[in-house]
Amino acid sequence: MNKKFIADGMCGGLARWLRLVGYDTIYFNTSKKIEIVRVAQKEGRIILTKDKKLILQYPEFTFYIEGENTQMQFKEVIKKFNLIIEEENLFTRCSLCNTSLEKIDKEKVKRLVPEFVYNNKNEFAICKKCNKIYWEGDHCKYIRERLKEL
Is the dihedral of CA 83, 89, 90, 95 positive or negative? Predict the structure, then answer.
């Protein structure tokens, strides 16, 4: 899990999927490409982009994404960087802001999640940056099924 990425504005879905499988991936939606380059250099990140000009300027730490949809892009990155998807890393990062999730006691989320969820789930996690609460829902089953297809 030592690879870190920055997905530019054209690769937002890809950033989300990389986060879902546990890879530290910043989503950087800006027209100021130099900002992305500075962060990549400073933090040792690989820029994932569909911007051919950026690839030509900084080939040493950029990767051109050819896929037209998120699933194709995700497969491309997994293959190119030999990324390993392991169960224990799934759903460990906030899919919105990329922060590592922390377990939170069920009682602390009682008024923060739907009653049905509270009554039927026992494990919860929280993003300390954006305060989003996570739990194992039906979407997790769907994501696991999609990952098996890869």
Answer: negative
Distance between CA 102 and CA 94 in Å, rounded? 10
- Has this prediction a pTM greater than 0.85? yes
Beta strands in the chain (DSSP E): 4-8, 24-28, 46-49, 62-64, 101-104, 124-127, 133-135
Residue 24 CB partners (closer than 8 Å, separation 6+): 1, 3, 4, 5, 93, 98
Chain-centre distance of CA 67, in angstroms?
17
Q: Which residues contact 140 (CB under 8 A, 6 or more apart)?
A: 90, 91
Q: In sequence order, which residues have a C-beta less than 8 Å from that of residue 102 and are 6 or more positions away?
A: 125, 126, 127, 128
pLDDT score of 1: 61
